[in-house]
Design brief:
Layout (H helix, E strand, L loop, with lengths): L1 E2 L3 H7 L4 E5 L3 H14 L9 E2 L6 H8 L9 E5 L13 H27 L5 E7 L11 E5 L5 H14 L6 H10 L4 H14 L4 H7 L4 H13 L3 H13 L4 H20 L4 H8 L3 H11 L4 H19 L4 H13 L2
Parallel strand pairs: 1-6, 2-5, 2-6, 3-4, 4-5
Helix pairs in contact: 1-2, 5-6, 5-7, 9-10, 9-11, 9-13, 11-13, 11-14, 12-13, 14-15
């Protein structure tokens, strides 16, 4: 298995008959596929890449051994599931029998795929897009590529590497700031980094000027000012958000969700990844909550939730939204 960040180098020194791009980040998978196209000089323009309508072994074999009209190397991409899925909770004889048939079919497909790859003569590369690599590991001639969400250090490395390829210097501190402002969402990181590169320089000043902070990051910024009991800074951040078009009621919802997350992090023993999966948020969001949680005692956070519940009731009673938010921020600072 190779990591996404190692992919460009590996493709320069190896010719793969097949690749499995697996993971939970759709942007990383799309970028990994673009790396394959670039490496083999294939344009993904509707003509250069063959995407069979079905994922049967017969159709994939036909696609692989039909020469490309446009490139010396044929690139075949299978986007549908190739292997049948087992039922995880198999109860009863019927479900168990079905899972047995799935296992037998999977074994047949692995054997057929192994035979297909054994005939590879360098004229094609077969690419599978999958959620997991569990059935692809160990197949001779196939390499798996980890396309799961990147951690912050990997994102920083990617930003710095992109700057180097584009001949624009980006240091680790600037890359860290970009990743944080984008909540480590690679689709946003890529857009904002390219914007800075097009500007011509990447500095802390240009990042502050050009990079759009995710509203959730701005809430983390606001919570930091509140925790530091810096009322003027907290009000400056809030007014800046309103000035750029954020609705006070929408900001309240973000603050409410953030402090609920902080309380949950403070009072639970689950890992960042477990909490993120349970709450349906990005791990970076939980990381911000964990940083804030370190500044409070559980009872202080309980009082914060009480203040937020009171503010919610006042908003529902149609009290002036800015007045409610101003009072709420001062109450949170008083904790």
């Amino acid at each position: 298995m190779i990591k996404f960040l190692e992919m460009r180098e590996k493709l320069q020194t190896n010719d793969y008959a097949a690749l499995c791009l697996f993971g939970n980040d759709s942007w990383v998978k799309r970028r990994a596929l673009a790396n394959v196209c670039e490496s083999y000089g294939v344009a993904d323009d509707g003509f250069g890449v063959d995407r069979p309508e079905s994922s049967t072994l017969e159709e994939l074999s036909l696609a692989c051994f039909t020469p490309s009209m446009f490139n010396p190397k044929k690139l075949v991409v299978c986007e549908q599931p190739f292997f049948p899925e087992k039922k995880e909770d198999a109860f009863g004889d019927k479900a168990k029998a079905e899972n047995k048939r799935v296992a037998e079919r999977t074994a047949e497909l692995k054997e057929g795929l192994a035979k297909l790859l054994a005939q590879a003569d360098g004229s094609f590369c077969l690419v599978f897009l999958a959620d997991s690599d569990k059935n692809f590991v160990g197949l001779q001639g196939l390499e798996t590529v980890d396309c799961n969400k990147l951690d912050k250090q990997s994102i920083i490395k990617w930003i710095v590497s992109l700057g180097r390829r584009k001949h624009v210097a980006i240091d680790n501190l600037c890359a860290d700031r970009i990743a944080s402002y984008c909540l480590q969402d690679m689709s946003r990181v890529a857009v904002e980094t390219q914007k800075l590169i097009d500007y011509g320089e990447v500095t802390l000043e240009s990042i502050e000027m050009l990079v759009h902070k995710d509203a959730e990051y701005a809430i983390f910024d606001l919570s930091g000012a509140i925790a530091n009991k810096n009322a003027s800074r907290a009000m400056e951040i809030y007014r800046g958000l309103v000035a750029r078009g954020e609705e006070p009621r929408a900001l309240f919802a973000l603050i409410y969700n953030f402090y609920r997350r902080v309380y949950y992090v403070k009072t639970s023993s689950f890992s960042t990844e477990e909490i993120a999966a349970y709450l349906g948020v990005k791990p970076a969001s939980v990381g911000f909550a964990r940083e804030t949680a370190e500044r409070y005692k559980p009872m202080q956070l309980k009082r914060a939730l009480d203040f937020l519940a009171l503010a919610d009731a006042r908003l529902k009673a149609f009290v002036d939204e800015n007045e409610v938010m101003n009072i709420l921020i001062m109450q949170l600072i008083s904790l």
